[in-house]
């Protein structure tokens, strides 16, 4: 069969997957505070599972905290452990019972990090990001409680995988995990055409949120932050930027909307102090969506404004049913990733990748496991 007549070629497959080796290179967390680049046995897919060859894996702030031991005993439950949950790859082998998955060896894929239990009330309502059985034994949150993808290979349930459209490169696809979170956020606040939006925190999440908000119809987009990341925000389409080192964030957002305030604020900052600013920057009847985590910190909210202005306050967790939309936005060019994936590291240099993230010199270090 020629490539032209092979339907899998049109779906973004690669030819001739290499033979799977018995051992693989992985960034192994053997003791907290340090990753070892080590050889470990290549995992094999069980029933309903698929073995994937990793092509790109981003590392994020949560990974830094896991390595440091901030969630020791939970994420991960024990050592040694392989982290990594923002990645893309290629199907290398299909486990038993995956015949009807629609997947084939060679398919390029991204993976959700859990699929829920499919039985609890939240899962049955399609809100599997809120699965009520996450703390029960056997629940797998990949990269957190089950092996991640900062390695040459990773095993995932077939139902967690989504095929990558043609034209979306592996590093861009590694951003789908975070991008899908912003798609979920846009859906939570029901963004409509012509909306006015503010994004607080122009890290990877905020810069994806900006673009997904625009793709969802936002006409005015104000990004609040500081330094060079605001230039990236402008490059990626922000209509206004507010540098909080030079201007009050609430005044800046209100000035961009004729004093009225925005329809929706997306807080991607992870800074608990931002929540009060977000409330103050929102128009009457508008919405505030919280995407960033604050490490257990508390925030003050002006209660009267919340009640008297009938503001909507949304928590946003994970990305239920949002991977296909994010992949489509990448394929269409509506979301651009090249300024966000420029920092690449080989798996052997994983320490440099973590160093760049910790020092904030990289928005998102992308680790490439294969030479
Ligand atoms: Zn992450
Ligand atoms: Zn469930």
How is this structure best described in words?
- By secondary structure, the chain is an alpha/beta fold.
- It has two domains: 3-174 and 341-368, Medium-chain alcohol dehydrogenases, catalytic domain (Quinone Oxidoreductase, Chain A, domain 1), CATH 3.90.180.10; 182-315, Rossmann fold, CATH 3.40.50.720.
- 25% of the residues lie in helices and 24% in strands.
- The strands form three sheets. Strands 3, 5, 6, 7, 8, 15 and 16 form a seven-stranded mixed β-sheet that branches. It has a six-stranded parallel β-sheet with strand order 11-10-9-12-13-14, with helices on both faces. It has a three-stranded antiparallel β-sheet with strand order 2-1-4, with no helix packed on it.
- The longest helix has 13 residues, at 176-188.
- One zinc ion binds at residues 116-117, 119-120, 122-123, 131-133.
- Residues 60, 62, 85-86 line the site of one zinc ion.
């Amino acid at each position: 069969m020629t490539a032209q007549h092979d339907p899998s070629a049109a779906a973004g497959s690669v030819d001739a997957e290499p033979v799977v080796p018995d051992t693989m290179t992985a960034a192994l967390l053997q003791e907290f505070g340090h990753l070892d680049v080590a050889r470990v046995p290549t995992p094999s897919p069980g029933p309903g599972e698929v073995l994937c060859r990793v092509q790109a894996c981003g590392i994020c702030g949560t990974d830094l905290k896991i390595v440091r031991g901030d969630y020791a005993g939970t994420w991960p439950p024990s050592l040694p452990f392989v982290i990594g949950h923002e990645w893309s790859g290629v199907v290398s082998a299909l486990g038993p019972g995956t015949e009807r998955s629609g997947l084939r060896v060679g398919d390029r894929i991204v993976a959700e990090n859990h699929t829920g239990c499919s039985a609890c009330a939240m899962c049955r309502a399609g809100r599997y990001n809120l699965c009520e059985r996450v703390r029960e034994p056997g629940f797998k949150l990949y990269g957190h409680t089950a092996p991640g993808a900062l390695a040459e290979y990773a095993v995932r349930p077939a139902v967690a995988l989504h095929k990558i459209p043609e034209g979306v490169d592996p590093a861009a696809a590694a951003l789908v995990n975070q991008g899908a979170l912003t798609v979920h956020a846009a859906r939570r606040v029901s963004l409509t055409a012509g909306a006015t939006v503010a994004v607080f925190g122009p890290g990877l999440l905020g810069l994806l949120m900006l673009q997904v908000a625009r793709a969802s119809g936002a006409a005015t987009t104000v990004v609040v932050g500081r330094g060079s990341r605001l230039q990236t925000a402008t490059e990626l389409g922000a209509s206004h930027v507010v540098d909080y080192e030079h201007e009050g964030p609430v005044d800046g957002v209100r000035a961009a909307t004729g004093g009225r305030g925005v329809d929706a604020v997306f807080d991607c900052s992870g800074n608990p102090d931002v929540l009060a600013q977000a409330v103050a920057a929102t128009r009457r009847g508008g919405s505030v969506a919280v995407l960033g985590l604050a490490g257990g910190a508390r925030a003050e909210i002006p209660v009267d404004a919340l009640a008297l202005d009938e503001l909507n306050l949304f928590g946003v967790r994970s990305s239920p049913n949002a991977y296909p939309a994010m992949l489509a936005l990448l394929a269409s060019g509506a979301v651009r990733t090249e300024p966000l994936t420029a920092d690449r590291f080989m798996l052997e240099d994983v320490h440099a990748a973590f160093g760049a993230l910790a020092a904030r010199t990289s928005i998102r270090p992308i680790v490439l496991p294969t030479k």
